[in-house]
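Appendix B, example 12.
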Amino acid sequence: MGVLLEVKNLTKKFGGLTAVNDFSFEINRGEFIGLIGPNGAGKTTIFNLISGMEKPTSGSIHFDGIDISGKLPFRIVNLGIARTFQLVRSFKFLSLLDNVQVSCLSKRGKAASKTIGTEAYASSILRSVGLIDKASVPPIVLPHGDLRKLQIAKAIGSNPELLLLDEPFSGLSYEEQVGITDLIKKLHSEGVTIFMTGHVLRELMALVPRVIAMHQGKFIADGPPSEVANNKIVLEAYLGKGEGFA
């Protein structure tokens, strides 16, 4: 498969606070990986650094052999990385179709839609996430679960090779979580490499074959969910000493 993303000795400081501390890991092409850690561990900062929302203080990030450390977000999207956010972001008063079409205007999105046109390509994405019947309505009228699907649809519109999903289950009912889970599995089966965070540990640990754990900005474990879930350092840092993943 080969290494798709290589993060090496990554550090991010905000004044006197070190949010990410000498963090290193690799993701192979086609993998499906979870990133866990308690609140404030640095998970979203890792995503911000990979996607260009923040510039690293030191260390490097290579995507498909290209150094993307500190590159602007639109350049990183054009290379093949897309992401979602914990807080749902959209053009509230544009239709769902228009929202997705905006993301299709990226370099890779244009290439993917060239043969059928942007509108048809965006429509196919809305169909794949189960929102085609709402293509003409604005996001402002959608329930939370559909807004999560729209976020993923917008990310897909840029035709990513690596998809970063930041808390995709946040605020969802059980039924909505099942729908998002099925969608994420479908994307992975179609060849998208997925790296995701999550507070809903049961779902996350059951979904991914590999988990990276962090605490206070530092790497603490990497491996199959069953191993990470029983790692003493993870149990003490993430769940509290002596507790486990129920």
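The chain has two domains: 1-79+161-246, 89-158. The two ends are 34 Å apart (CA to CA).
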